[in-house]
Amino acid sequence: MNFNFDKDNEEIVLRAEEFFATEMLPRHREWVETVCHDRKPPLFIKDIQEKAKGLGLWNLALPELAKDEPGTRLSNLAFAPIAEILGRLPWGSMAFNCHAPEVPNMAMLQALATPDQKEKWLNPLLNAETRSSFAMTEPDVASSDATNIRTRIEVDGDELVLNGRKWFATGGAHPECSFLIVMGVTDPEAGRTAQHSMVIVPIGTPGLTLVRELRFMGWADFVAPIGEFRLENVRVPATNLLGVRGQGFKGAQVRLGPARIHHAMRCIGMAEMVLAQMVARAHERKTFGRSIVEYDTVQKWIAEARIDIDLNRLFIQKAAWMLDNSPDKNTWRVVSQVKVSTPRMLQKVTDRAVQLFGAMGGTDDTLIHHAHTYARWFRIGDGPDEVHLRQIFKTEPVPEWTIADCPYIAPPGF
Ligand SMILES: Cc1cc2nc3c(=O)[nH]c(=O)nc-3n(C[C@H](O)[C@H](O)[C@H](O)COP(=O)(O)OP(=O)(O)OC[C@H]3O[C@@H](n4cnc5c(N)ncnc54)[C@H](O)[C@@H]3O)c2cc1C
To answer: Which pTM was predicted?
Structure first.
């Protein structure tokens, strides 16, 4: 395993760091003020995106398949430090068109779409001219077992007719979202994993209603507002089927590996930001005649956060390297390990940050609440902890030796 970057990759990280310092961080207050007051995406995002594109900092997270597509595709390992830099700010990943849910949706379209579908739905995403959403989860069924999904997709002549309910469709409530990728049942008589298919449903299709925008633990996702949808006799052309009929789950796998690891990379950026804020605050405030930073508890929190962040970064690098180098079943185990470990780390770091900041830690006046809620949702979204833990457990081999083979002190009659 080799975590070293070549010269080109090092240069791109430096460029991203410079761009963050000069173009992004100075505009963060403007972003906050705009989204908090009128909820529209700030216009300067387009301006920043143009600059980033001009510098080749564009679509860096596209998969290997995308070699001939626009953008500067990096390996997962080389993308890790970039995702970390962008993850420091809630909107950071948008600057380079490397945000969710667009990246996993683009990956899926690149892998599965027909040339016509690519032209109509993928190219505008590659150029950040539109937004999209992936609608699998349903309020009426336990969606961590995706085979429960029951939205019905029926064929009627050369049309598909959809009926059902969807929620937690990230980005679906964004004013610029132009289509959903909907998972539903096309073949109810087939085996459990061969019943579902994916269909592209344009926003504005009659029968498709955005019921509400959801908040998660009071947290509004300003970057990709979360939608709940009702689908009542929604008709789309049969050519909107994405991928092979009955192979919806297989198709959706394309988005899951990179999506999970990219979220984990962003978590590292958030944790670094929160840790820096903890250190600054601890130096700034005094209680009972001493600076807060002088208390052992606070020093321990800071030191442990540093250990936890660095360990998780290494773990992500390992998973990224494995994804880049002939992924096998061990790779998916390590991706699951990262998926469980990183948000837990971020949750622990941010919980201590809330404590250290006192009342302010629970407000939106810092990035702590955002990072804390991100950690919390990531322990549920893209597969809850328990589902991944079950997978990890299944890969743990039962040893061939017995416990009696390994005493420390030889028992009588040994
Ligand atoms: C902020 C946010 C954004 C999201 N974005 C999207 C999106 O863009 N598109 C989309 O389709 N979905 C999205 N989701 C939904 C997410 O993927 C689902 O919430 C998740 O799959 C869990 O499904 P569920 O909520 O129905 O929980 P359930 O399936 O009801 O599961 C509830 C709990 O049961 C337990 N459990 C389940 N299975 C097992 C098991 N095998 N062993 C032990 N315990 C188990 C777990 O503790 C789990 O948390 C998002 C969710 C959040 C919070």
So the answer is: 0.95
